[in-house]
């Protein structure tokens, strides 16, 4: 199917959506000079304008047959360069970009409003507002980009903002250990360390992404997403093999940005940043960039797999990394003692679910189900996880600590926060039927069965039980039971825990209601298959046209059934039964341990034995983080110290001192020839003139 760029009024909001927050970012220092309140409210205003622009794109989802709409402008002309004659700058409006842009912009606006209360009184707010709006602009640029080069600009922009905002409290004050650090000894890190860790780790994935982009452009001559779909169809068969390593290298970027194994350990430590940063960047938006890029590349790789079956290995890599990451991160959340870190591990785990869905989608001819499941869970997770981080921030704000054992018994003091966290935690757990997380998670589980992947299904189901366990554990330790000794000490000092101000609880209450409305939408839209069914129909209609497929997914499945796949009706029944079972098991165990305290979890684990060893193994993050420090970080530090001592100080510095002393000695000796006496100066001038005349004579002769 030949698709050519179009120019129309529909693309204007796509351009303005990322331009508004960019403008707002660069105006922030100027507004700060005028008035600090103007700076604060101005920053929120520009995020609102971005959200308004993306909302204007939503009606296009109901006329999907008219999509995609994309507009390109010449940016750089490369005359005489045979591989790539030009690089264009443009926007791409299709169901994926519309959905993702609204997730980014609307949730960002709510978090910016929340920031007015949460960040009140903090120093460095001009820097904070600048990077928050700059992040929103770069994230929307990434989403709306119609080619890989433009995507890379937004990709690196959000990486820079992530580094700056994680290390916002860069002074690393030890007195702020309870609020701004992350982790516990021997893995406790200050904000500046965490920011640098995130920056370096994600750069590893970005290098892989860049190499993949270079390979793609070298063999296809284009970086446009729409053009690549056609280019891979006509790529000579002898060059098809290069797409497999290129695709896996491209996937290196999402592995880093979306914190998948083996580059997952930066995200839990990114919780050193403010709760608003955790909600915006490390739950709702930036970490979804990797999932978005896989979804954007999906049609290209799927087309390639039809002409070169070995391309299917790319999808298996995505799926297996996703499901293993989901399981590993889920187990790490079980033992974490920090409220935001529990949510961070949960985020990594849920991102693994999304990767799993997109991966298995590429291995089956009913790819619409897996693709829809990944995007649906992206939307659902962005809403409930942003709310969870914001409620966690309100609790930390109230109890002045990030540790769960410093909380407890504050349900009555913070009722709105309690119910907001409970409702969104239910969505995370997949409680039926009124919560969006139930529908999106079950669709992912169903897609693994339809792809004939029972082992992946089993791992994903076990992870769902683990999710239910740590969610109930977090709720109980935060709000239920008796008040901690720490809270009693605060009350003795005159600080009483109370509900967050309206400017903070209204945004996360809206998100809590939204996750329920999504769940209700799945029921009220049952004639269309629920919200997920409507979404599936939207992507099926769009992608089938994009890929030039005349048959529906049902006909394709009948003609070319995936080996080992179950019939859809049976897959749905098994999925629902399994989902309810694992939810009940995980929630019941957590209820017995952390609400009933029968048995007491501390006594159950004890001080030694198998359970204690297992607890230590999970608490130390499977020793993945320790491995990277031991193999890469500490040797690098040792080498740096050695190089400083022996090369910098012992070599370069000594050479500089020797050279300086030599020049100074020569200068001192030469200076003695300048006596200041006129007779000596005249003699010197005459001698110089004679020498000059001799040289001229020698040249002429």
Précis, in short:
The chain is an all-alpha fold and 701 residues long.
Inertia-based shape: globular
Q: Kindly estimate the percentage of residues that lie in beta strands according to DSSP.
A: under 5%
Q: Provide the structure class.
A: mainly alpha
**Number of DSSP helical runs:** 27
Q: What percent of the residues sit in helical stretches (DSSP H or I)?
A: over 70%
Question: Biggest sheet: strands, sense, closure?
Answer: 2 strands, antiparallel
Mean residue pLDDT: 90
How many discrete domains? Answer: 2
How large, in whole angstroms, is the Cα Rg? Answer: 30 Å
User: What's the arrangement of strands in the largest beta sheet?
Assistant: 1-2
Question: Between the first and last Cα atoms, what is the distance in angstroms?
Answer: 82 Å
H/E series: HHEEHHHHHHHHHHHHHHHHHHHHHHHHH
Low-confidence stretches: 551-560
Number of strands: 2
